[in-house]
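Summary for the steering committee. The consortium agreed at its last meeting that each partner would contribute one worked example illustrating the joint modelling workflow. Our contribution is presented below. We chose a case with several input lines so that the handling of multiple components could be demonstrated. No manual editing was applied between input and output; the record is shown as generated.
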Amino acid sequence: MALEDIDLRIRTGEFVFITGPSGAGKTTLLRLIFGAEPPTEGQIVINGINLSRISGTKLDLLRRKIGFVFQDFKLLNRRTVFQNVSLALEVTGEKGSVVRKKTHQMLRAVGLAAKEEAYPIELSGGEQQRVAIARAMINDPLILLADEPTGNLDPDITREIMVLFRSINLRGTTVVIATHSRELLRNTDQRIIVLHRGKAFE
Amino acid sequence: MVAQLRLWSTFFKHALSSILINRLIYAISVGTIAISLFIFSAFVLLSVNVKNWIQGWGQTLSISVYLKDGIDEETRETIRTAISTLQGAEIKGYISKEKALQDMKRMLGSQAGLLDGLTRNPLPASFEVAFRNAGRKTFEPKRIKEVLEKVRGVDEVQYSEQWLDQFEGLLDMLKVAGLAIGGLLCVAVLFIITNTIKLAIYSRRNEIEIYKLVGATDWYVKAPLLIEGALQGVLGGMIALGVLSVMHLLLSFKVIQVFGLPFMDFVFLSKEYALGILFLGLVLGLLGSVIAIGRFFKF
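What follows is the complete predicted structure of the assembly.
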C-alpha cells in the first residue's frame, strides 16, 4: 500500500510542499487529490465535495477547478503554445472569443506572449513548464497541484518557476507541490509535509 | 443551445483533424468498407430486379382448365362460376372438344390428315383463363390449381408458367446468399472500423490523457471518435452506391446493345434501399467506434 493513515487538512490559499524519498507516495497523494484514483479506504473532500460520492462527469467538472503540473510538462508537440493552453478552456465549451482573450492574457501573465505560435519543442524546459502552468491556471483553479515541477530544470529556471507559483498562491489559489529537492525546501518558510513509508509527518 | 452547437463543431473539427493525420489508415478503411457494402448492395440490386421480373411476368399469367369428357352443361356452368369468383380471373374463352380438334388441325396444317384416323376426339374441352394485374404476391398458381382441380368435372389445370416457381427458388437462394454474405461482410466491416478507431485512439492517447487532465468530460473525448466511425461507414456506403450506380448504367447499356432492346427493366435500387445501405454504414460505423471506445476507456 502506497499510503496509510493519512489525515491531512490543507486550508484554502495555503502553499504546501509534500516531500519524501522516491516511492514514498507523493505522486499517489496528488493523484488521490485529483481524483485520478479512488482511495481504498477513507475519503477525500475538496471544497466540501466528497470525491467518492460524486459521478464521473461531476468529477470531470471538478477537475476544471484543479490545475495539475508535471515534471515532464505533458504538452502536445503537434500544437502551438497557444493551442496547448487554450484547449483547457475549449473543453469547457467556452466561446471562441473568450478562449482567445483569456489565453492571450494567461500567456502574458507567464511571460510567453511572444511565443504563442511556437511549438513546445522550440522552447526551453523552463518555457515549456510555463506553458504547462498557464494551461493549469487558465480555468482559475481553486487548487494547483504540481508533481516535481522543477525536476527537469536548472537552478535559475527553478527559481523563476517558484516565483510564478508564489504569485499564483498570492492571488488565492491553494498550491500543493510535491518535490524531493532539498534546494527547494531549504529556502522556504512554507508548510512542509514529509511522507515516509506511506505515512505523513509535518 | 449555442454552447451545444459550439461543442459539436469542436467535435467535428477534432474528428476531421484526426482523419487528416491518419489519412492513409482511413482511406484503406473506407475503401474496404466501400467494397464490402458494394458486394452487399449488388446482391440487393440483383434480388430486387429478379423479384421485379417475376412479378412482371406473374401479372399476365394464364391458365388452362381442362374439363372431363361428357359433363353436362350445368356442371360446366358451375365450373365457369368457380373460375370467375377467383380474384383477378378473366375467362378469355371456352374451347369445346370440337374447337380444340379444329385448332389442332389448323396447327398441323398440311399434316392434318394424321388426325383423320381418329375414331373419337381425344382432346378435352377447356376454359382459357387470364389473370390480369394480379401481382405475384396475391396470385398463387399452385393454390388456384389445387382449388380448381377439386371442382367436380375439372380434369386438370395447367399453368404455362410453372417454371416461374424455379425462378422464385432462385430468388430465395439469392436472398439467403445475400443475407449470409451480407452478415459476414457486416462483421468484417465492424472489425475494420473497430481497428481503425483503436488506432486513432492509440495515436491520440497523449492528447486524450491531457484532455482528461484539464477536465474534459468522457463525452468530449468520445464524441469525435464516434463521428470518425460514422463518417467512415457513411462514406464507404456512398462510394459503394456510387460504384454500383455506374456499373448499373454500364450493364443496362450492355443489355440494350446485346439484345437490341431493353427486354426487361433493369432498375436501380429505390431511394429507400439506397438510404438503407447508407444507414447500415452509419450503424456499423457507430457500433465499431463504440466497441473500440469500450475496449480502451476504463476511466
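The radius of gyration of chain B is 31 Å. The first helix of chain B runs from residue 2 to 21.
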